[in-house]
Structures are given as C-alpha cells and as structure tokens.
Amino acid sequence: MPTQKNDTAGGYQRQGSLEIDADLMVRLLRQMVLIRRFEEASAQMYGLRKIGGFCHLYIGQEAVAVGAIATLDLTKDYVLTAYRDHGHALACGMDPGVCMAELYGKITGCSRGKGGSMHLFDVAHHMYGGNGIVGGHIPVATGVGLKIRMKKEDGVVLCFFGDGAIHQGAFHESLNLAKVWKLPVVYICENNQYGMGTDYRRVSAVHDLSLHGVSYNIPGKQVDGMNVLAVYAAVHEAVARARQESEPTLLEAKTYRYKGHSMSDPGKYRTKEEVEEYRRQDPILILQRHMLEQRVGDEKLFNAIDEDVKQIVRDAITFAEQSPAPGLETIYEDIYA
Amino acid sequence: MPVISYREAVRQALDEEMARDENVFIMGEEVGEYNGAYKVTQGLLDKYGPERVRDTPITEEGFAGIGIGAAMVGMRPVVEFMTFNFAFMAIDQIINNAAKMRHMSGGQIALPIVFRGPNGPAEYLSSQHSQACQTFYVHCPGLQVVAPSTPYDAKGLLKTAIRGNNPVIFLEAELMYSWQGEVPTEEYLIPFGQAAVRREGNDVTLIGYGKPMKLVENAAALLAEEGVEAEVIDLRSLRPLDEQAVYRSVRKTNRCVIVDESWPVCSVASYVGWLVSKNCFDVLDAPVECVTSEDVPMPYNHALELAVQPSVEKIVSAARRVLYKE
Question: Is position B302 annotated as part of the catalytic site?
C-alpha cells in the first residue's frame, strides 16, 4: 500500500501547501468514530433481525468518505455513491437516527422505509444516493456535473464507487464525457481490493486503477485510503481543479473493508492474517497516533469523543426502534411526482 | 389550420419548450451538427447553440444516465435515442435509475426527463433495428409512456412530457415522420391518460395506439362498407392508461379487438385484453381478440416482414370474428 509522506510543523499537518488544523482533525476523527460505532451497531441490529436484506458495512473504509467529503461545501457541492453508503450519508450530515430508521425500514427513515441500507438519500445535504447497481450511478453523478456546468455554478460532484465498478461501461462512458464536456466531477474509486469475493487483481488488466484516467486524458492518482489526512489533501486538490478549471479527476483510494462484502458474506476468500494486518493500519488509529504526536489530542479527548458518539448511536437506535412502520397506504406513494 | 408533418410537430414542441424554459435541453447522437438522424432536431442547434443541443458519442448508457443526473438536480433534458432499439444499451439507467429514483429516495427527488425517438417496425431492417420496444417500459412503474399517432398528438403530448415532473418514454416511428396532419398555430397541451375516440360506432370497439392507428382507421372504413360501424379508440398514453374510455366503448359495442405492433406475450394488447375481460365480462358478446406482431423476430425479406405485422386485413378479419361473421 502506498503511503504518503507528510511534512509536519508545529500543531499542523502539512500536505503540500494545505494546512490541516487541530479543529479539522478532531472533526475528522469524530466522524470516523461515528461511522465505526454506527456500523458496529448496524451489524448488531442486523444480527437481531431488526435490519434485513443486503447490508454493506463501511468499517475499515471510513477515512475515504470522511476525508473526501470534509473538503466540500454541501450547499453547492454534491455526493453520490454506491450501496456501501452509510458512511457517506453520515459524513454528509444525515441525521444518524434518520439513517438508522431507514435501515430499520421505518417511515421516519430518509427514504420512508422504501430504500433501506443501499438507498440512503438526503437531498437537503446534497447526498443523492445510495445506488444499488454497480457503476450505474457514475453517469448520474456525471449528469449532476453537467447541470453545474450548464448553470455556471461553482459546485463540484464527488462520485464514489468501488473497484468492482471500474470495469463497467458506465464508468468509461462517463469519464469520456466528463472530459469532453469539462465537467467538475471527482471520481473516487474506493479500492477495497475485493469486488464481493473477487480479488481485483484477478479481474483487472491494470492493478493501478488510477491509470484508467489516461484513456480520457483525466489526471489519475493513487492515495492512501487508510490515512484520512492524505485523502483530504488529495481530494482537496482535485476539488480545487474541478471548481476552478471545471476539470474531472480520478482518484484511487487504496482501502480495505474489515467485514464481508455484505452481512451475508463470511469473507472466506481472505486470510485472517490479511485482515489482521489491515486492522493494524486502522484509519482511526492512524489519525489518533498522528494527533498524539502533534499534541492536538490525547486519550482523554479520544475517549470523550467515543462516549459522545456511542450515545448518539444509542439515541439513533432508540429513534429507529420507537418509530412507526410505514402504513400500507404508502405503497402507492413516492412513485410519480 | 396548418397541415404539417409529424417530424415538424415534434420539432415545434421541442422548439417551443426550449424557448419557454432555459432548463430544457436536448442530447443524443447526431442531434446537433447533423440536424438529427431523422431531422427531427433540424435547426435547433443554430437557434439554441451547442450547450442546449448537445451531440453525444455513441454511449447510450452514458448519456441516458447523464440526463438522469441532470434532471435529478433541476434540468429538463430531452434525450433522443436514434431508435429505441439502441435504448436497450441504456435500459438499466431507465429502469433502475429514472423509474426508481423518486421511490427509493422516499419522494425526495423528481425526475423531469423525456426519452424520445422512433420505435417499432420500420422496413428492410431485420430484427435488431425493427422491433416494438414499448412493453419493456410500459411494464415498469415509475415511468410514463406515450405513443402519439398524429402530428397533433405528437406536439401536444411532447409539450406535456417536457413540462411534467416524471420520466417519460415518448415513442415515435421512422415511418410516421412524414405523415401529415392538422396542427393549430396557437399553443395547446394534451394531458396524459386520455384516450381519443377516432371514430364512433356501435358494433365493435377497435383499440390501438401509435403507428398502427392508420391501419385501424382503414380497417374501420372497410368494415363500414360492409355495414359494420366500428368505434375506434386511440389510447395515446399507455401509462397512465385511460381504462374508462376503453370500458365506455366496450359497454356500448359489446365487442373488442386490440391492435398492437409489439409481440403478443405480456403486451399492452394482452393487458388491455385482460382488463376488458375482467371489467366488461358481463357485457361481452365475444371473447376479446388481439391483432399483434407474430411472436417472432422481424425478418428482413419484405413479404415476410409485412406478414409478421398487423395489417388492415388482419384487423378486419378479427372484427368479423368477434361479430361471428367469420
């Protein structure tokens, strides 16, 4: 896994000319811990059959969504992702209770219990799904970029997808048009190394997936997806290019999911040792270590964040538990405008 | 009233709606500099520029999805497919994204997008370029599907489609573009879900939509010569479907023939046939008849391709059967 060399100075993390201050680090840590605890609770509730269907957990990949989305202004920027979407929704600011209620299929969920785990939408926070077909949302995200361009706005779109999506025609058709039409879209491939049970190296002609930008004259870059500050810096740069020059970028965030593809996948295609090795490179631990070194955080702060977040997740579960189920009369609602 | 072509009627609707709302834009293959594969968009590039009349590469899935994304955030794209045969490359975008986005977001998103282009059998094209694709879309909740059979309907329905807030499949036909018809100069819109009675009669109801309507009307004229007064219903809109117009007519005539140029299995014809059988059972004097395409891919040979499709003779024969004259 590539690691980015970072210069440090004083209480700051330097990524090139970009300064990342203590407040931002605390915010990033807090969001990653929230997603981690939320996902652990999701797994528990899935085990209790409170949540059904396909439930794809984001544990291990938190640094990607958190670091990337932290660079945005969601009053004018947009986020679209695939079905492993809990982390992105929370990072965009979706209320954890509303999010958990959707996983429970309750009427108070973001999609009124019609979308479930794979289809989280929060239009108020410019989070446009939560899309279940591998690669199918990449043209859609590109279309949001087209609207920004046509309306001469200065927003950008972050389009997240997995390594499994990068060989779909939809991805290649989108990159081609994003370049031809100069669209402000940052394509972020979260390479967690397994498309369901298939090691990406078995099905990818090139193993550096950022090279896929080359055919479309789009800059491509690999980034350490376990290091939230590295993700933040890389996406910050790509977002600036999109915003100022209306040029797309492809980023490959090298990451790892600790759990199976979904809750029903025991993940037997990976060794225990491999999973353990990545757990030692945990994105939360990496940031905490860095904050300790930089003296912008200590165990007391980390514990306080964790306790605070645990309470938020407990409240989210209580909200989901106590929310009513959708009435049968809602079946015919939300189909036509 | 001016008489114009179907092609011109569609073009006028596009032109008027683009002038009316700057969020309306066109994209597709050859829509701009080439002025449209079937010249439907002729002159629009000169008038509105390349931002709003957008030539695409041959990437149906890509530009259909891009249209969906733009519509999701407030644009009103009109996506032209050179034919609906090629839209199968984009059908995941249409079925899984356009039709579902509002539903799976719990009503947070509206998708004002029109997918339009020629559909149905043409001539000498064999099976990949000459097929009726409507059933795939009519099947899917979340979409609206219209199939105008006249220049008047094409203009009025397309304007409604563009102003609406739902994804619309707008079905034209290569062989219809040169058809002529009266279209008023003053503005009008035709609401979805309203069938048209093309001819009144008491003896048998003939139901159709889209290109075969001409066959249906010709069949009705032939039947009149032998003393059979057929009532002709043009569905115009397949989803939503004007069921009541169908029932009103069948309750008057007690006999029903449905004409559909798509394959018979799970088609608009078979669905309307089921509705009529269920809701007009007590008044039917004969089983419902369907005149559809034969259940085969389209052959290239002209005699064979004509034999595969509905014809005036087949419609007349079906009408005679429900009247027990054959």
Answer: no
Query: What is the 8-class DSSP label of residue A163?
Result: G
pLDDT in tens, A224-260: 999 999 999 999 999 999 999 999 999 999 999 998 9
Query: Is A143 in Cβ contact with B67 (below 8 Å)?
Result: yes
Domain B3-182: what homologous superfamily? Thiamin diphosphate (ThDP)-binding fold, Pyr/PP domains (3.40.50.970)
Q: Judge: B110–A138 Cβ closer than 8 Å, yes or no.
A: no
To probe the interface with A, which of B72, B145, B239 has the most A CB atoms within 10 Å? B72
Tell whether pTM > 0.90.
yes
For chain A, percent helix, then strand, then coil, each to nearest 5? 45, 15, 40
Chain A residue numbers with beta carbons less than 8 Å from the beta carbon of B102 are 334-337
Q: pLDDT tens across B55-64, in order?
A: 999 999 999 9
Residues of chain A falling short of pLDDT 50? 1-12
Q: What is the rounded CA–CA span in Å between residue A34 and residue A90?
A: 8
- Please judge whether B72 and A111 are an interchain contact, meaning their C-beta atoms are less than 8 angstroms apart: no
Q: Does an H or E element contain A198, and which?
A: strand A198-199
Q: Which of residues 146-185 of B touch A (CB under 8 A)?
A: 164-166
- In the chain, the amino acid numbered A208 is D
* pLDDT at position A20: 87
Task: Please report the number of interchain residue pairs, chain A to chain B, with beta-carbon separation below 8 angstroms.
Answer: 145
Query: What CATH number does domain A17-323 carry, 3.30.1300.10, 3.40.190.10, 3.40.50.970, 3.90.420.10?
Result: 3.40.50.970
Token pair for B113: 């997008």
Domain locations along chain B: 3-182, 196-324
- CATH no., domain B196-324: 3.40.50.920
Q: Is B129 a catalytic residue?
A: yes
Q: Which amino acid is at A227?
A: N
For chain A, the structural domain boundaries read 17-323
Q: How far is A245 from chain B (nearest CA, A)?
A: 18
DSSP per residue over A84-141, as a string? Answer: --HHHHHHHT--HHHHHHHHHT-TTSTTTTSS-TT---BGGGTEEEE--STTTHHHHH
**What is this model's ipTM?**
0.96
Stated as kind and residue range, the H or E segment containing A306 is helix A299-322
Query: Can you give the pLDDT at residue A19?
Result: 79
Query: Which chain A residue lies closest to B165 (C-alpha atoms)?
Result: A337
What pLDDT score does A155 carry? 98
Q: What residue in B sits closest to A170 (Cα-Cα)?
A: B62
